[in-house]
Amino acid sequence: MQITIKAPLSVTQIEQFHRDGFLVVENLLDSTTVDHLVGRFDPLFAGDFETGVYPDEWHWNPYLGKQGEAEKMTGVWQCDRTLFSTMMSVKLGQMAATLEGWDGARLLADGIWQKPGGAKETTLHQDSMYINYHTPAGVITCWIALSHAITGASTIEYARGSHRWQLSEAVPEFHNQNQSYRSEMEQAARAAGVNNPDVVQLDIAPGSGVFHHGNTWHGSGKNTLNVVRRSMVLAYVPAAAQFKPFGSYIPGGYIAGKYRRHGDNTMDESFFPIVWREDGYRTPFLDN
Amino acid sequence: MSLSPQVHQQHSPLQITPTQIELFHQHGYLIVDNLLTPEQIDQIVGRFEPLFNTQFETGIYPDEWYGRPGLSQPDATQQMTGLWRCDRTLASFTLSAKIAQINATLMGWGSARYGLDACWIKPPNAPEVYFHRKNTYTSCIAPPAIATCWIALNDVALKTGSLEIVPGSHFWDSADKVRFLHAPSEDYRTPLWQAASQVGIQSPQIVSIVLPPGSAVFLHGNLWRGSGKNPSQTKIRRSLAISSLAGHAKFQLPGVGDGYIFERYRKQGSLEIDESYYPILWSQTGYRTPFLADYCQDALA
Questions:
Q1: Which of A14, A23, A207, B167 is least crowded, fewest Cβ atoms below 10 Å from its Cβ?
Q2: CA A138 to centroid of chain Cα atoms
Q3: Rounded CA gap, B281 and B264, in Å?
Q4: Alpha-carbon distance A159 to A195, whole Å?
Q5: Cα distance between residue A182 and residue A170, in whole Å
Q6: Across A63-75, average pLDDT
Q7: Helix axis angle, A90-100 relative to A11-20, nearest 10°?
Q8: Interval B227-271: pLDDT, tens
Q9: Residue B104 CB-half CA count within 13 A
Q10: DSSP H helices in chain A
Q11: Residue A116 CB contacts under 8 Å (≥ 6 apart), including other chains
């Protein structure tokens, strides 16, 4: 594969990403930014949306939620300008595009996670299972630790090299399964002829993160420690991405499918902004 | 998306009378019996369990989702909004021209577009729901007005935490604010007491709506409503709320009002409410957003 060097990542890092299906990058965010982001979590999960706009997904709130369960919210950039300013980062988008060899990155989705002590496992899955309705294809995710992510406290884990396996059917539920959180990954590994998948649990300091390929199997174990694991997730597609042509709805459109205009394959920048493109273009409203 | 005058569909004749319209304007609500048949109710209720177990027929997620098995308290109210994108059986009811027509006729609109569609499932001991005005949640829309058809899917009675309304409160010049409605830590009627106090009413008349399955109450967007705890030990209260905006509705200027769900669908630099997201369901001219014909049937046509 021919690799074109684009700052701010080295050839070695890019090669490692393509070999393993993921790449740890340290110090993506400084400690002040991390503190500001974390400070928004509890108000958001309690329904205090700074802009008055609700998120796309809001799984868990303190009024109806069971104590100790994983808290997840997506589509947060419209709800809170503190998170918006980080989620629309030029640098993160540029890194994502660089790793994939794209000429630009479009933010498809964002998410925040908060897993308190005792929170259950998050089933291993491939992001492309849920993000497979656009062309040109491809999705890359940036997972940023906002607390110290460690083994035993539900840190993110990857099946190394699993981005080369075939894309599996969507895992239907990854918050609340009755079977092992790795079972679907292990099944995919066997189908790929891999008997002992190399599962790596990462140790990531707050503000550092990891980029993973859309086909890389990942998830997290149970939080067995008395700490809260917090993270932020950004999923990018190529800047040039459009929806594939579909009929009256996008089967499996998850959340992005809600935003397709009927009869129009455009991924509207109002909903899927271009955060970085090598020609200097960036969706104008981001900087207003 | 522009209105296309060549698309016309015939719908069942409207049965709402001038007297009913007058009653609606006088009291802020109107009860209409036998809107759905038992078979239609079974069709609707049968879709709820898959939805709350993350099995969306279209593979598209809803706009709001509270009360998720395993992640929520066992007696949590289950509410899901934006059903039409998730499930086409439910869409065939919530995008019904007839219900939109009644909503529009009661409000004096010449057309109606989709606003919100939500199921509410209150299991035994499900907590209270704050009193509120639905129009509070449409403040980023011009006109900031919504009409709701609230359909009982089983017996709605005092013993199952029925819907409570305050007749005439749609006339009150009182404030409300967007709140998380479920399981308030204070008296769920607190916003009502505050609003009544603002207009000099000491003891507002609260009416508990009692409905047999399939009957509906149409609610003015400014009418104060809420619901108490479901005191039953055995009975689940299920309802379907289908809300319409005026067909001619636009977004307010950016920054005006609370965006709630609506603002998520605003195209940058535009006040237009796109029919892909908020389709026109009924119009006096016969117009109905064309893609609906490909998407789902109209269960009440």
A1: B167
A2: 13
A3: 21
A4: 12
A5: 14
A6: 95
A7: 70
A8: 999 999 999 999 999 999 999 999 999 999 999 999 999 999 999
A9: 24
A10: 11-20, 31-45, 81-87, 90-100, 183-191
A11: A67, A68, A69, A71, A223, A228, A229
Closest CA relative to residue B121, chosen from B168, B77, B157, B170: B77
- C-alpha triplet B38, B44, B46: angle, nearest 5°: 100
- Which of A64, A69, A271 is opposite residue B67, by nearest beta carbon? A64
| Tokens matching residue A217 | 């199997």
Instruction: Select from B180, B258, B295 the Cβ nearest to the Cβ of A61.
Output: B180
The answer to whether ipTM exceeds 0.90 is yes
Closest CA to B280 of B64, B8, B18: B8
Residues near A59 by Cβ (< 8 Å), separated by ≥ 6? A70, A71, A72, A73, A175, B65, B68, B71
CA atoms within 13 A on the CB side of B117: 25
Please give the torsion angle defined by the CA atoms of residues B68, B134, B238 and B75, in that order, rounded to the nearest 10 degrees. 40
Which helix (H) or strand (E) segment holds residue B64: the answer is: strand B64-66
Question: Which residues numbered 146-205 in B keep a CB inside 8 Å of some CB on A?
Answer: 178-180, 182-185
Contacts A66 to B, Cβ<8 Å: 70-73
Q: Are A15 and A3 in contact (CB under 8 A)?
A: yes
Distance of alpha carbon B119 from alpha carbon B81, whole angstroms: 7
**Beta strands A199-201; B163-165: pairing state:** unpaired
What H or E segment, with its residue span, contains residue B83? helix B83-86
Residues 6+ apart with CB under 8 A from B174: B194, B195, B196, B198, B199
Which residue of A63, A169, A264 is the best one to mutate when testing the B interface, meaning the one whose CB has the most B CBs within 10 A? A63
Nearest to A235 by CA among A101, A81, A80, A74: A74
> Any residues with CB less than 8 A from the CB of A163 and at least 6 apart, and which?
A21, A212, A213, A214, A215, A216
Tell me which chain B residues have a C-beta less than 8 angstroms from the C-beta of A172. 54-55
Q: Of residues B169 and A172, which shows the higher confidence score?
A: B169
* Lowest mean per-residue pLDDT among A62-71, A139-148, A172-181, A234-243: A172-181
Bigger pLDDT: A18 vs A178: A18
* Contact between A161 and A198 (Cβ < 8 Å): yes
What is the DSSP code string of A249-261? Answer: S-TT-BTGGGGPP
Nearest to residue B15, comparing CAs of B216, B192, B280? Answer: B216
- The rounded distance, in Å, linking the Cα atoms of B196 and A282 is 50
Contacts of B95 in chain A (CB under 8 A): none
- The pLDDT tens digits of the residues spanning A212-266 come to 999 999 999 999 999 999 999 999 999 999 999 999 999 999 999 999 999 999 9
At B22-60, the pLDDT tens digits run 999 999 999 999 999 999 999 999 999 999 999 999 999
C-alpha to C-alpha distances, A92 to A105, A113, A208, B22, nearest whole angstrom: 9, 18, 12, 59
Query: CA A64 to CA B183: how far, in whole Å?
Result: 7
pLDDT recorded at residue B3? 33
Q: How far is residue A38's CA from residue A145's CA, in Å, rounded to a whole number?
A: 10
Q: What angle do CA A106, A89, B258 make, to 5 degrees?
A: 85
pLDDT at residue A173, rounded to an integer:
72
In sequence order, the 6+-apart residues with CB closer than 8 A to the CB of A131 are A108, A109, A139, A214, A235, A237, A254, A256
